[in-house]
Amino acid sequence: MNIGLVRHFKVNCYTKMFMTSADFRQWVKQYDNSDIIESKFKIGNIKWDKCFSSDLSRVIKTSQSIFKGEIIKTQLLREVPVAPIFNTNIKIPYMFWCISGRLAWLFQCKSQIEAKNSNYNVAYYIQ
Questions:
Q1: CA–CA distance from 92 to each of 21, 30, 33, 84, 110 (Å)?
Q2: How far apart (Å, rounded) are the C-alpha atoms in residues 22 and 90?
Q3: Given pLDDT bands bounded at 50, 70 and 90, which one contains residue 90?
Q4: What mean pLDDT is predicted for residues 66-82?
Q5: 23-45 exposure pattern, b = at least 16 Cβ within 10 A, e = fewer
Q6: Residue 105: what pLDDT?
Q7: How far is Cα 103 from Cα 85, in angstroms, rounded to an integer?
Q8: DSSP string over 20-85
Q9: Among residues 82, 84, 94, which one has the least CA distance to residue 17?
Q10: Phi and psi, residue 119, nearest 5°
């Protein structure tokens, strides 16, 4: 069985350079619901037997664009959600929010929605 791993196409979502924590939270929601900018993707001679996809629309659309068979959708393949590490009305660079949120997840800070040590087990689903 061949399994491919592909990231979604570029997301059509405007990003402000500076954001408050509330702005960043709103941007994350907007990003998760934004459309993709479809591009040419050459799969070559690779034949996939199955395609597993996150259940987010941007990933489903990307999968449908490059795979013509059945697509098995699951929230188990979603990106780890990111959240601001603290609340503030001060506008801070967008990249700070992204990087600090990922580091907070890595170090299992309570500010994040999902912890690094969550008990998700994807292996049972891919059989």
A1: 8, 18, 23, 11, 20
A2: 10
A3: very high
A4: 87
A5: bbbebbeebeebebeeeeeeeee
A6: 87
A7: 9
A8: -HHHHHHHHHHHHTPPEE------TT---S-EEEESSHHHHHHHHHH--S-EEEEGGGSPPP---S
A9: 94
A10: -90, 35
pLDDT in tens, 23-40: 999 999 999 889 999 888
What's the confidence (pLDDT) of residue 69?
83
Q: Using CA atoms, how far apart are residues 114 and 82, in angstroms rounded to an integer?
A: 8
Q: How many residues does the chain have?
A: 127
Most confident of 1-5, 46-50, 99-103: 99-103
